[in-house]
């Protein structure tokens, strides 16, 4: 897998430092609250666990699975709910944790869904923010890194289901996804 990476953008150590910073920021903002943390499957599992371990507040954890990429390198433009959360979020503070905010379609879908369910508040934490890819206006409240407009994998991010387990975030060599 490492041979498929053009260059490392964020090392394991840099990601750990970012998760610690995000956990502290979230702890500060959620004192005396018990947010429902909604982790977006499958990519956000890594950042969710690492940020949660840095948070010093009570939380409840939920998982949601939505898809707009269908295994490719670009969003299909259509978001579909694969697995819904089971928690009732009415009158609850909700923190969505994402691996990357790119076009904004997935995130807007989830935010709108939670607001329709009368969440008291909805905030967003993401490891990576790619504003150059934005199609819909959405903003993360907590951002690990702003990422350039390149196809990145690792630390939860994938290409066709692979590379999620890399401990860093790297740029995938274009020959990997252009030749297939």
From TrEMBL:
CDD domains: PRTases_typeI (cd06223)
Boundaries of every Phosphoribosyltransferase domain copy: 9-160
Cellular compartments annotated: Cytoplasm
SUPFAM superfamilies: PRTase-like (SSF53271)
InterPro entries given in the database record: HGPRT, Hxn_phspho_trans, PRTase-like, PRTase_dom
Lineage: superkingdom: Bacteria
Catalytic activity: IMP + diphosphate = hypoxanthine + 5-phospho-alpha-D-ribose 1-diphosphate; GMP + diphosphate = guanine + 5-phospho-alpha-D-ribose 1-diphosphate
EC number: 2.4.2.8
Keywords: Cytoplasm, Glycosyltransferase, Magnesium, Metal-binding, Nucleotide-binding, Purine salvage, Transferase
General function of this protein: Purine salvage pathway enzyme that catalyzes the transfer of the ribosyl-5-phosphate group from 5-phospho-alpha-D-ribose 1-diphosphate (PRPP) to the N9 position of the 6-oxopurines hypoxanthine and guanine to form the corresponding ribonucleotides IMP (inosine 5'-monophosphate) and GMP (guanosine 5'-monophosphate), with the release of PPi.
Family stated for the protein in its record: Belongs to the purine/pyrimidine phosphoribosyltransferase family.
Name by which UniProt lists this protein: Hypoxanthine phosphoribosyltransferase
Phylogenetic placement of the source organism: Bacteria, Bacillati, Bacillota, Bacilli, Lactobacillales
């Amino acid at each position: 897998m490492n041979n498929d990476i053009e260059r490392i953008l964020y090392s394991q150590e840099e990601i750990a430092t970012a998760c610690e910073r995000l956990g502290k920021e979230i702890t500060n903002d959620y004192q005396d609250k018990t947010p429902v943390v909604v982790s977006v499957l499958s990519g956000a599992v890594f950042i969710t666990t690492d940020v949660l371990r840095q948070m010093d507040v009570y939380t409840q954890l939920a998982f949601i699975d939505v898809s707009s990429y269908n295994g490719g390198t670009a969003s299909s433009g259509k978001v579909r709910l694969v697995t819904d959360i089971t928690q009732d979020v009415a009158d609850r503070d909700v923190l969505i944790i994402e691996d990357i905010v790119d076009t904004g379609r997935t995130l807007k879908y989830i935010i709108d869904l939670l607001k329709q369910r009368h969440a008291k508040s909805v905030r967003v934490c993401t490891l990576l923010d790619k504003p150059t890819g934005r199609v819909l206006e959405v903003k993360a409240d907590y951002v690990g890194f702003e990422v350039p407009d390149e196809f990145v994998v690792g630390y939860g991010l994938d290409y066709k289901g692979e590379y999620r387990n890399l401990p860093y975030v790297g740029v995938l060599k274009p020959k990997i996804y252009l030749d297939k």
